[in-house]
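Lecture notes, part 5. Sequence design as translation. It can be helpful to think of inverse folding as translation between two languages: the language of shapes and the language of residues. The source text, in structure tokens, appears below.
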């Protein structure tokens, strides 16, 4: 989006800005007076505010409002977040991970869908709509930021989104109701390729990115009624990565908008950084809780050079150097 689209300034507060999240236009609500706002389609074309209002919509008459659950305590983190001395294989792909598609029920509910597909992989029989309705705190009144609630309605085409703490909160509540000792770990701040250690250990990783890795930057901001600022990146999206391949330069992703696919490691890492390095993993599984065995992972083991091979290689290099010198003389 171009900078002229930004309507919030220090002097004039605009009530609504239409952005793009999870494949749809979304309204960023401000607590000031109502006002029209333009929107920009995925192809970059403008739609005037009044025209946008008159378009056909499948939105429900009322937006979901839900109380934020009280903080849920869990066991302390027990997983090894990253081992600097551990040599990763060139490729590791968790076997049999399947994407759950967010449409048509949750057109802007990529975050809760990414959590649902991860729970399904771990053996929990739950669907995305149940996770949305019963476990994810949702707010459309502008009371909170995306760190506390999903903002908007994920069942509509004007839902906004949420950040990693909200998905952790939904997972904690789910595990408490299920009487499971599993728990989420918020890995936000972890460098992207350090997440590959989790994958190699059999743990898929929920990450924040953009739709189709479209370029973005955090240039839109509003102040919630609780006084906190919220920055937003256009095209914000959430999915689960379950593999990487250094030889081909790709990560394997379960994308709720696309299905099982691959994306460039380099491009994904750049967008991941822009979105604040947000990531979540789940510890344990439905059958055995925290006693679960590691999930099956297809790996290519790193090549190991023996002392004999190294000595021979050095000898050949020295011999070639000596021959070159003699020829020069």
């Amino acid at each position: 989006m171009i900078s002229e689209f930004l309507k919030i300034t220090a002097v004039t507060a605009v009530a609504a800005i239409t952005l793009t999240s999870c494949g749809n236009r979304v309204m960023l609500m401000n607590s000031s007076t109502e006002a029209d706002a333009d929107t920009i389609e995925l192809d970059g074309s403008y739609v005037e505010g009044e025209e946008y209002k008159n378009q056909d919509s499948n939105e429900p008459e009322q937006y979901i409002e839900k109380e934020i659950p009280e903080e849920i305590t869990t066991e302390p983190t027990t997983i090894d977040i990253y081992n600097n001395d551990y040599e990763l294989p060139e490729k590791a792909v968790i076997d049999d991970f399947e994407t759950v598609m967010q449409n048509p029920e949750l057109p802007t509910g990529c975050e809760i869908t990414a959590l649902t597909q991860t729970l399904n992989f771990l053996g929990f029989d739950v669907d995305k709509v149940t996770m949305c309705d019963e476990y994810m705190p949702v707010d459309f009144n502008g009371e909170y930021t995306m760190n506390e609630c999903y903002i908007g309605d994920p069942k509509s085409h004007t839902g906004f989104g949420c950040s990693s703490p909200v998905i952790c909160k939904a997972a904690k509540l789910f595990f408490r109701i299920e009487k499971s000792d599993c728990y989420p770990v918020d890995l936000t701040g972890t460098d992207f390729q350090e997440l590959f250690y989790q994958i190699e250990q059999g743990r898929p990783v929920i990450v924040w990115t953009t739709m189709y890795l479209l370029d973005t930057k955090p240039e839109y901001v509003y102040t919630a009624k609780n006084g906190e600022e919220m920055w937003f990146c256009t095209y914000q999206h959430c999915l689960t990565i379950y593999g990487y391949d250094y030889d081909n330069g790709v990560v394997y992703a379960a994308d709720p908008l696309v299905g099982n696919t691959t994306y460039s490691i380099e491009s994904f890492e750049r967008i991941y950084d822009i979105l604040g390095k947000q990531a979540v993993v789940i510890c344990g599984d439905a059958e055995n809780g925290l006693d679960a065995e590691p999930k099956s992972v297809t790996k290519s083991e790193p090549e190991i050079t023996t002392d004999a091979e190294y000595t021979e290689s050095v000898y050949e290099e020295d011999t070639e150097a000596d021959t070159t010198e003699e020829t020069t003389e």
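The translated text above is only one of many valid answers, since several sequences can fold into similar shapes. Helices lie at 49-53, 110-121, 128-134, 164-177, 196-200, 265-274, 307-328.
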